[in-house]
Amino acid sequence: MELEALASRKFTKYRAYVRLHQKLRGCTGLAECAETAGELVDNYIDNRLIWQELTWYQEHGSLLGKHPAFAEFRRRKKLVNMPVKKLMTRLRQVEMNIWRVKSELAKGDKPHLDAVRRERLAGYEKERADILRLLE
What we know:
The structure is a single chain. By secondary structure, the chain is an all-alpha fold. It folds into 2 domains: 2-60; 82-135. The chain is built from 5 helices and no strands. The two termini are 24 Å apart.
């Protein structure tokens, strides 16, 4: 299942990389070029991490497990095994984390951390959705 998800992500990241590479050539402003280049590099790095995982699996027949997606898979597995009471406690913690990250983004005092904060926010929102789905 993990390999299937990684292969799907690989195609998505590669297509985004190609699209962004073309977009980079048509940039008109410095800010647009910087944003596009940042996204391009992020997609390239993620694509290479996935490539490393798939190559390792092909050569050794086991998962390397270094890609960040594996942390998400482990988190979901952990959530499935939690009792309802702990899920409710974790839901409150995640909602507080979402609030905290949103307030940090709203301040705008450290724009160099915005990408990391948006990534954390997306992770917390995914976890919140997973918890709510399990509680239904």
